[in-house]
Amino acid sequence: MTSAHVHATVPATTPNQVPVYRKWLDYFTFNPDHKVIGIQYLVTSFIFYFMGGTMATAMRTELATPSPDFVTPEVYNSLLTLHGTVMIFLWIIPAGAGLANYLIPLMIGAQDMAFPKLNALAFWMIPPAGLMLIASFFLEAPQAGWTSYPPLSLVTGKVGEGIWIMSLLILGTSSILGAINFLITILKMRVPSMGLHDMPLFCWAMLAVAALVLIGTPVLAGALILLAFDLLAGTAFFNPTGGGNPIVYQHMFWFYSHPAVYIMILPLFGAISDILPVHARKPIFGYRAIAYSSLAISFLGLIVWAHHMFTSGTPAWLRMFFMIATMVIAVPTGIKIFGWIATIWGGKIQLNSAMLFAIGFISMFVIGGISGVMVASVPFDLHVHDTYFIVAHLHYVLFGGSVFGLYAAIYHWYPKITGRMLNETVGIFHFILTFIGMNLTFMPMHELGLLGMNRRIALYDPRFTDLNLVCTVGSYILAFSTLPFLLNAVASWFLGTPAGDNPWRALTLEWMTTSPPPIENFEIIPVLTTSPYDYGVSTHNSAGDGSVFSPEPVLSDDSSVTLQPEPDSVVADNTTDRQVESYAVASLIVDRQPENRADEPAVESSVPNGSSSSLQVESEPAGAINFDDR
Predict the structure, then answer these.
(1) Phi/psi at 63 (5° precision)
(2) Distance in angstroms (rounded) separating the CA atoms of residues 235 and 250
(3) Which pTM does this prediction carry?
(4) How far apart are CA 61 and CA 81, in angstroms?
(5) In CATH, which of 1.20.210.10, 3.40.50.12710, 1.10.600.10, 2.40.50.140 is domain 20-495?
């Protein structure tokens, strides 16, 4: 049985109404349009990414030699603290929120998020929080690391630490407001014909993210408020000199911050799940397994926090529980990776920039995941805790996963956002530089950690010099790799090749409107009639001539959605069990409203360039079978 996705019917605007598009000034205002907010999130997050990357490059320059000959150890500590905070709270998390803001209403057929003004407020809390954090570097910068463990964070300066706490509280509030919006939008704003199991997998991933944010972020906020009292009011919640317990802070901090790993990576899991079927021209392998694995990761992510604290005097029996739980969380992640590889296997792979970055994402995350299972083991973790092995693991999971996943998403959805294609030659060059720079920077850190080099230090034993120099060269390549992307994104926005509405011949709803979408998103309310991942599924038309159709929409000259026949030879071998007869319902744009009749006229609509296009609204032919199993 096949559920659903191709579209047509009830006008969302009047037949002769011309779609309205945003002006560029709208992107600098408090605008409730989810598409504007999504772009605001993405652009702002990448600005902070460049800032955080600059800090990382400065640190790697210092670490090229064992002695402090570029910045002082105090400045190094400040750079380290701000780099981690900026990259996590101002780049990766907001970038995932930006993708979700732009895509979710389009993917589920909604006109906007559930609470548009609250959505805008959530974004506009980020710039002041980020500017406060950056400004602290020039006042009295925090130096206790991005974890801000007491008692160190209580003795490194009240001004910088206070600004750090305030910034994170604002960012956490923004994250909670966004999570509420995502949750309600996904559960309540879908078009009537879309069941939960008809949603793109990106929506499932964001459902899991929203739950994590709503459960974990208030705990972090509580820890930061208590830390602020210790810092500014002289209390002793975490200050051991007054009878406080700093281990309690670690429990509260990691109860949020380990799930934060999945808050950062789950949106990109969802994006990769939507990108691979399009560019492999195959159905996603194991839709429900991948969807439910996101929820499993969300649940398990809440019970593994103390594996960061194996060296903190945790009782042996408790270590065993967290060790097992941390290893178990690899199972739902492995389900996703297996599904992605099976989706690629035997497909008609298009090795464009989006697909290359998606494959790069899988490879980087697998490396980080394997080292993650290693550090989940208590005996191994006792040896490598707080060494560069942990730095390597963290960056392969978060940086390798995040940067490759985000770039894959941008190369895939950039045509929808702008209406123009990114330059593929520059994109492939960008991928090669990023892949080389990533591995040259972080792969040697595994050996540095095994050799015993501690992290978070500006001075180190001279015997580590050669490997550190290799890492520094790799960081320069990685920093340089952002330039072709930046030039490509800006130049293509103005000069890129027009993309059309659906250049990838994708099946999810966001590709069934214009590129870029109008303010109202859809001129007609979508009705689903095929699966979002039915690429290459063997079906037969109702004419009985045996010709094979694959429900891959293309844009004809009059901008209507059609279905393109494919020869039997390109139908994926592993989809023969999904063949059904009389699948003509998937080759039509169907009006399933009971009041419409076959003799009703076509619904006329307008396209942005002024040329008219018609969308034929037809009833189901006699004898057609409705395979909607919802």
Answers:
(1) -80, 0
(2) 17
(3) 0.83
(4) 16
(5) 1.20.210.10
Query: Could you tell me what percent of the chain has a pLDDT over 70?
Result: 82
Q: How many helices (H) and strands (E) does the chain have?
A: 17, 7
End-to-end CA distance of the chain: 10
Domains of the chain, residue spans: 1-19+523-630, 20-495
Q: Please write down the HEC assignment for all residues of 138-193.
A: CCCCCCCCCCCCCCHHHCCCHHHHHHHHHHHHHHHHHHHHHHHHHHHHHHHCCCCC
**Coil vs helix vs strand at 242:** helix
- In sequence order, the 6+-apart residues with CB closer than 8 A to the CB of 251 are 305, 306, 309
Listed range (176-180, 354-358, 597-601) with the worst mean pLDDT? 597-601
As to burial, measured by CB atoms within 10 angstroms (0-12 exposed, 13-18 middle, 19+ buried), residue 336 is: buried
Report helix, strand or coil for 302.
helix
- Average pLDDT for residues 28-46, to the nearest whole number? 94
Distance between CA atoms of residues 122 and 127, nearest Å: 10
Q: Are strands 561-565 and 548-555 parallel, antiparallel or unpaired?
A: antiparallel
Do residues 358 and 273 lie in contact, with contact meaning Cβ atoms separated by under 8 Å?
Answer: no
How far apart are alpha carbons 239 and 226 in whole angstroms?
10
Helix or strand run (H / E) with residue 98: helix 93-108
d(CA 542, CA 539): 10
Give the closest residue to 101 by CA, choosing from 61, 43, 28.
43
